[in-house]
Design goal:
Strand content of chain B: over 45%
Shape of chain A: globular
Order of helices and strands of chain B: EEEEEEEEEEEE
Low-confidence stretches of chain B: none
Largest sheet of chain A: 7 strands, mixed
Distance between the termini of chain A: 35 Å
Number of strands of chain B: 12
Shape of chain B: globular
Structural class of chain A: mainly beta
Helix content of chain A: under 10%
Mean pLDDT of chain A: 94
Strand content of chain A: over 45%
Mean pLDDT of chain B: 95
Number of helices of chain A: 0
Oligomer: heterodimer
Chain lengths: 113, 112
């Protein structure tokens, strides 16, 4: 199936731990994104990479570090997890043309206890 | 800067009622406009899009028309079903760059 896939779907961990979320797309897109969705469903852009280069880097704690080994993968590593990091994290991808939509993964629900 | 303002919810309708969810935008030039739908426990799915003024996007009985003069992209459906219960997001992509701007989402519940 052609899609944006992210793992794991659920992640439950304790404060202070370090965790990673992986994302892969096989749509041939050149731009990938990480979004955070809070409990009120508000979507906040965190990062975006275009062909492995960081192009969007919003105000996000530096405990969050994205990594793009190639243009089909964008992983998110989070250090020293805090309670406020609990949210759903979505990976997405798009082509570079301005009329191209975002394609989203199914999300990773992170719960920090 | 660019932004999207979306009708606040939640919205509750009876089955077969008419749906309108308002969306207005601020952008320079001619952005592309999108509606996404998020069903419970799932990611956002593209519902429809319009990429230039007066374009009408449509899918699954939903429609939205790109109105440059009123900077709007309202979502409509003539007869909603229980299965349409979801959160709906209006979004724009500027005509340059890779940034997308999302509205705050509107939760729709359709009751039988």
């Amino acid at each position: 199936d052609t899609a944006v896939s992210q793992t794991p779907k659920y992640l439950v961990t304790q404060m202070g731990n370090d965790k990673s979320i992986k994302c892969e797309q096989n749509l041939g897109h050149d731009t990938m994104y990480w979004y955070k969705q809070d409990s009120k469903k508000f979507l906040k852009i965190m990062f975006s990479y275009n062909n492995k280069e960081l192009i969007i880097n919003e105000t996000v704690p530096n405990r969050f570090s994205p990594k793009s080994p190639d243009k089909a993968h964008l992983n998110l590593h989070i250090n020293s997890l805090e309670l406020g990091d609990s949210a759903v994290y979505f990976c997405a991808s798009s082509l570079g043309q301005h009329n191209s939509p975002l394609h989203f993964g199914n999300g990773t629900r992170l719960t920090v206890t | 800067g660019d932004s999207v303002t979306q009708m606040e919810g939640p919205v509750t309708l009876s089955e077969e009622a008419f749906l309108t969810i308002n969306c207005t935008y601020t952008a320079t030039g001619y952005p592309s406009l999108f509606w996404y739908v998020q069903y419970p426990g799932e990611g956002l799915q593209l519902l429809l899009k319009a990429t230039k003024a007066d374009d009408k996007g449509s899918n699954k009985g939903f429609e939205a028309t790109y109105r440059k003069e009123t900077t709007s992209f309202h979502l409509e459906k003539g007869s909603v079903q229980v299965s349409d219960s979801a959160v709906y997001f209006c979004a724009l992509r500027a005509n340059t760059g890779n940034q997308f701007y999302f509205g705050t989402g509107t939760s729709l519940t359709v009751i039988p």
